[in-house]
Amino acid sequence: MTGLTGGVRFGLQGKPAAGKRRACAIAAALAASITGATAGAAARLDRAPYGTTQGGQAVEIFTMTNDHGLRVCFLSLGGVITQIDVPDRTGRLDDIVLGLNTLREYETLPGHFGAITGRYANRIGGAQFTLNGQTYHLIANNGPNTLHGGPSALDRQIWTVTPLTVPGGVAATLSYVSPDGDQNFPGTLTTHDCSIGFRTCRCHRTPAPGGFRDRRHRPSRRGRSRCCAEC
């Protein structure tokens, strides 16, 4: 699983430097990012239908590959990394990701295999917290606690995937807007790419990974509009 500490970017570049190939692949699984030194190798990002959720939403699978055998697959559902194929010293590919076989399994089985977790990674005891004197009652999904944001949190949502071209490779950014009240959390949470991180509208405060902090909306350097009329 990937803890949500900012925006999310997947990237795949040319052949990793010697001795770093395995480390890069493990970093991809843990931090939703895979990079390497540019060596002039062609890289591409393909997309294809993966299925339809029980709620009727289309899910796509994205596959990043390069000429040296490295391959990363992820879904628009929760940003789930389904597969990372890494060549060993003899060139034999092997998948190093623990994942599931079908979309239905990702939807229904317990666990958060390879997914973006949030709004809050880990447990919130008693499925409630108090912020600025107000107590918020969340949805319990781990005994009496709320785990990884609730039963229908960010790992169960369809994210917008935007392919990017980067020097020496390809990349993709994932974005999603969690509205005020989603899973009973306060504040609108908007995720963007890594250069912007995630934001909330200034009319609410919301818990953020690592503690409860005021994440107020500020206009981005790219001139995007404010997230609501109250800001």
Question: Can you describe what's shown?
Answer:
Helix content is 7%, strand content 37%. It has one domain (2-213): Distorted Sandwich (Beta-galactosidase, Chain A, domain 5), CATH 2.70.98. The model is unreliable at 1-7, 13-41, 193-202 and 209-231 (pLDDT under 50). With 231 residues, it is mostly beta strands. The two termini are 33 Å apart. The strands form 6 sheets. Strands 2, 13, 14, 15 and 16 form a 5-stranded antiparallel sheet that branches. The protein has a 5-stranded antiparallel sheet with strand order 3-4-5-6-7, covered by helices on one side.
Q: What is the name of the CATH topology?
A: Beta-galactosidase, Chain A, domain 5
Kindly state the mean pLDDT as a whole number? 73
From the structure provided, what is the oligomeric state, counting identical versus distinct chains? single chain
Helix/sheet category: mainly beta
Beta strands, count: 18
What amount of the residues lies in strands?
Answer: 35-45%
Number of domain modules: 1
Spatial gap, N to C terminus: 33 Å
> How would you spell out the order of helices and strands?
EEHEEEEEHEEEEEEEEEEE
Helix content: under 10%
Short note summarizing the structure:
The chain is mainly β and 231 residues long.
List the helices and strands and how they pair.
Blueprint: E1 2-3, E2 8-13, H1 21-31, E3 43-52, E4 58-66, E5 71-75, E6 81-87, E7 93-95, H2 103-108, E8 116-117, E9 123-124, E10 128-131, E11 134-137, E12 146-147, E13 160-166, E14 169-178, E15 189-191, E16 198-200, E17 206-208, E18 211-213
Parallel strand pairs: 1-8
Antiparallel strand pairs: 2-14, 3-4, 4-5, 5-6, 6-7, 9-12, 10-11, 13-14, 14-15, 15-16, 17-18
